[in-house]
Known about the structure:
This protein is α+β, with helices and mostly antiparallel strands. It has one domain (2-94). 34% of the residues lie in helices and 28% in strands. It has three helices and five strands; from the N terminus they run αβαββββα. It has helices spanning 2-14, 26-37, 86-94; strands at 23-24, 40-46, 52-57, 63-68, 74-80. It has a five-stranded antiparallel beta sheet. The longest helix is centred in the first third of the chain and has 13 residues, at 2-14.
Amino acid sequence: MKNATMLAAAAMVVAMPAIADDCMEPSDLQAYLEEAYAERPIAVADNETGSRVRLFTLKNGTWTLVQYNEERLACVVANGTGWFDEPQAEAQRTQKPRS
């Protein structure tokens, strides 16, 4: 279920335009995400047009979605905080609010 959820989210974001300033060589971007945010790649997906996306996360922390463009550069298309693995995400959704 976790992979299906991630791949569905990735498919929706693939259509988003990449910001030119956020593109670089794939190895450089991966090294940056690992050094600056301790994010590691956890999933990769290809779409029908041959475009590839990769999701980097820090367990229970930040996440970055990277798309590889025609020039084979890696471009950040989305990022955020509050990444949870599926079991923790389900617990967060079902937790009752504190009074």
